[in-house]
Amino acid sequence: MRFVVLSLTLLCLGVSVPAQAEERLAIIVAKTATQGTLDTEQLAQMYLRKTRFWNDGTRAIPVNLPAAHPLRLAFSRLVLGALPEDQEAYWNEQYFHGIAPPFVLDSEEAVVQFVATTPGAIGYVNEATVTNSLRVLFYVPQTMSLGEKKTSP
Known about the structure:
By secondary structure, the chain is of the alpha/beta class. It has one domain: Periplasmic binding protein-like II (D-Maltodextrin-Binding Protein, domain 2), CATH 3.40.190.10. 34% of the residues lie in helices and 18% in strands. The protein contains 5 helices and 5 strands, in the order H-E-H-E-H-H-E-H-E-E. The protein has helices at residues 2-15, 40-47, 70-80, 88-96, 108-117, and strands at residues 24-30, 61-64, 103-104, 121-126, 134-141. The protein has a 5-stranded mixed beta sheet, with helices on both faces. The longest helix is centred in the first third of the chain and has 14 residues, at 2-15. The radius of gyration is 20 Å and the shape is globular.
């Protein structure tokens, strides 16, 4: 009997999964970018194209992942407060006034490449995707509720 209990205990310990670190969205710019800091409200204004320039006068070029991408869904919910499909009316109105939505790139790797090489570009990727060609402005926990403050790098 003791052998069975010990075996079951060891089996349970062997199959237990260690707690994973919370995944975070990294808000990124090029490593060489001269732009300063942002908070989540300023980031939202940039992605909604209400703020079109960085403080240093550089044109802001926000980029998105495709609407169905899990990181885009998380970003839209956490930073913009609405899912991409809920923003269609907003973008139709903006387009009527000559304001186009942020560019959409196919993958996190495309976002990394674009942001690293385009002055004024800003994007978001999973923190594990960040390379040494980027600077993280701040992290957004994927479990963050609306209205919470950013997490510094």
